[in-house]
Amino acid sequence: MIEQDILIIGSGVAGMSAAQYAARAGRSVTLLEELAPGGQTMYIDMIENYPGYDQPISGYEIGMKFQAQAEQFGAKLVYASVTSLKKEGDVFIAETSGETYQAKAVILATGAKHRHLGVEGEEEYSGKGVSYCGTCDGPFFKGKKILVIGGGDTALTDAIYLSKLSEHVTIIHRKDRFRAQDNLIEQVKRNKNIELLMQHTAVKIVGDGNKVTSVVLKDLVENKEYSREFDAAFIFVGMLPQTGLLDKDLLDESGYVITNEKMETKLAGLYAAGDVRTTVFRQLITAASDGAVAAHCSSEYIDALEGREYR
Ligand code: NAP
Which atom of ligand 1 lies at the shortest distance from residue 238's CA? Predict the structure, then answer.
């Protein structure tokens, strides 16, 4: 049994920020991460809206900086997948395949994973032209015909990145207006390498057995399906919050964790921060802010638990 004050699950920006604040406040902190530190930042080519960076910085680099800062204050990063989380009395118990972790408070910062479209050919051609990460797979499609599906920040950010690799990038979006930030919409509209097809969806991804060759599109205005040649289909249709460790009564109807402004969930001592929680705006800066609030408030909770009556 490994004991610590605060256990943080997930090492994206929210988790790293929480680790840094909690460790700096003198708490013993363990950060459990199942894959690689940095969370979604690892998929972002260039970040230009994080305060303090007047020049764009890569997602990888900023993720590494978050990690170094958290570790500098004494937070411990452990690579392990949490298989169960329960509360016994005032103590949280998290099981991983190799160890059991015990903590007075837990901050869930597990983020969200890529949502799939669910169309024919998507799974078959995943890794053979179907991708969920522009910066990871874009370089394989230099000069090729690239389809981008989605209308949020990720779709437009990655389309801009892909347009540097190919003159033939087409974005399709099911609505007549994008969900993304205005600044990105303007950049996309000005970009000569990007074609926009609004009110279009992808119906089927077609290939020759080894790679994507075309996509069947649907024009929702004309209610007409037609096929177009593409070498790759990049799918950016949102995220699925990673909440498998929690009871359903802690979640909203979309599956995100419900918190108050202190990042407290309905379960005393359990906090959530970043993309995994219900919020109106999911950005690196808001994830970092959530992490700091969760660290501060979970630390206050522990003080109350140990000294005064918990308010
Ligand atoms: P998102 O904001 O949820 O957008 C998902 C997009 O996919 C929406 O345009 C949605 O259409 C569309 N969509 C969903 N299901 C679909 C389906 N079945 N078929 C076709 N289209 C579908 O997701 P995101 O763009 O991945 O962004 C996730 C979070 O990360 C957001 O909060 C975003 O702000 C943040 N982010 C920030 C940055 C940055 O700071 N620079 C960069 C990337 C992401 P509708 O619009 O019709 O719903």
Answer: 23
153 Cα–ligand 1 center, Å: 6
The pLDDT of residue 311: 42
Q: Which of 136, 247, 252, 303 is catalytic?
A: 136
Domain containing residue 158: 116-235
Q: How far is the CA of 152 from the centre of ligand 1 (A)?
A: 3
91: which residues sit within 8 A by CB, 6+ positions away? 102, 103, 104
CATH number at residue 16: 3.50.50.60
Query: 223: left (phi > 0), else alpha (psi -120 to 50), else beta?
Result: left
Is position 297 annotated as part of the catalytic site? no
Q: What is the pLDDT of residues 41-59, one digit of tens each?
A: 887 777 888 999 999 999 8
Q: Among residues 94, 180, 116, which one has the least CA distance to residue 189? A: 180
- Asked whether residue 311 is domain-assigned, the answer is no
- Residues 177, 280, single domain; the answer is no
Q: How many whole angstroms from 51 Cα to the centroid of ligand 1?
A: 22
Assess whether 128 and 155 both reside in one domain: yes
**pLDDT tens for residues 64-81?**
999 999 999 999 999 999
pLDDT band at 308 (very low <50, low <70, confident <90, very high): low
Catalytic residue among 137, 153, 231, 290: 137
Q: Which of 193, 218, 235 is the last residue of a domain?
A: 235
Q: What is the pTM of this model?
A: 0.78
